[in-house]
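User: Before I run my own analysis I want an independent prediction to cross-check against. Here's the chain; please return only the structure tokens and, at the end, one sentence I can use as a sanity check.
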Amino acid sequence: MEAKKVMFSTRTLVTVGLLSALAYVLMLLESPAYIGFLRIEFSDVPAVVGGLSFGPAAGVFIELVKNLLKVISNTKTIGAGELANLIVGCAYVVPLCVIYRRYRSKYNLLAGFAVGTVVMCLAGIVANYFITLPFYSQMFGGMSNLIDMVGSLTPGFLPKIDSLWGIVIIGITPFNVVKGIMISVVSYYVYKIVRKPLQA
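Assistant: Structure tokens:
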């Protein structure tokens, strides 16, 4: 019994490590930028799969590793973007995995995706207002310059952006809602495919 337990723990560790590496690779495959700096990428999918299979701590670990690897390989943001990504990613993965692993059913999995998306959007408001945007404003020579840049790149169907809160609420939050839905759909079907092999 003890040997089996050790083998399972080793297998889990290896699997989580592979999911972390996959998350990092997916983090590099970004869509074209929206309003200058927002990009769709699916690096949260391996974290969701790991969290649903092995617990929320596994999901957090995968989020942490992928962002540490990104910091090491890309020094442009000096970690500010990666810190925000870590906060937002964990805010999505943790409630999703807690809900599903406590009440395992298809309904609660879908509810977990919905709650995770809402919490992710709320965390995104905080992270972008206090971390990401103040840092990027220094790169653009001040907050007013950043606001002008984002305003000029905002699609015409959205209200005019003329403040920091405008960037967060009008520009970033709807983007995070769409991103959360896309990640949820992809994660749902990926998990359906790999759930049995991972838990075998």
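Sanity check: Residues 37 and 150 are 9 Å apart (CA to CA).
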